Amino acid sequence: MIYGYTLGLLHHLVSWLLYPVMLGLAVCLLCLLWEFGILLSEKYNGLRVLQQSTINEFEQYAAKRLERVDLLARSGPILGLMGTLIPLGPGLAALSSGNIEQLATAMTVAFDTTVLGLLIGLFGYIFGRIRRRWYEVTLLEIETREYDEAAINA
């Protein structure tokens, strides 16, 4: 009796997680679009402005930006996997009762969340790699500038 009740409660709890997972994927997608805008801004304007900052200021800025895209690169696939596994339980239950339409709906949600999560992870990774390369070049330019200024002042 308790065994069946516990499994039923667990099933309902997990099924309620699908909505927060889908909301999380939507938020990640919006954040990814936001990061793409920042990436374009840095490419065409922002990095030249940041070259005038100090090494510590730039390192703090770079760490903040890289943390966000790294979080997207990791959380997107995790949320996609959760969005895959959660509807499979009801889908398999529907298959056992012969409800093919409910199984098809569950499989569609499962595959869509997987693809969206992987897409978020892929672009988060790409944005992170591009930024790391740009930030290394910019940091080298700042260090060269500060070294030259220190040599002139000495």
Top keywords for this entry?
single chain, 154 residues, mainly alpha, 4 helices, elongated, membrane, transmembrane
Provide an overview of this structure.
There is one protein chain. By secondary structure, this protein is an all-alpha fold. It has one domain (18-153). It is 94% helix and 0% strand. The chain has four helices and no strands. The protein has helices spanning 2-16, 18-50, 55-96, 100-153. The chain is elongated. The N and C termini lie far apart (83 Å). The model has no long low-confidence stretch (mean pLDDT 87). Keywords: Cell membrane, Membrane, Protein transport, Transmembrane, Transmembrane helix, Transport. The chain crosses the membrane at residues 16-40, 78-97, 103-127. Its main location: membrane.
Instruction: Please tally the β strands and state the result.
Output: 0
Biggest sheet architecture: none
Output the helix-strand order. Answer: HHHH
Q: In one word, what is the shape?
A: elongated
Indicate how many domains the architecture comprises: 1
Mean pLDDT: 87
Rg from alpha-carbon coordinates: 23 Å
Individual helix count:
4
Poorly predicted runs are none
Strand content: under 5%
Helix content: over 70%
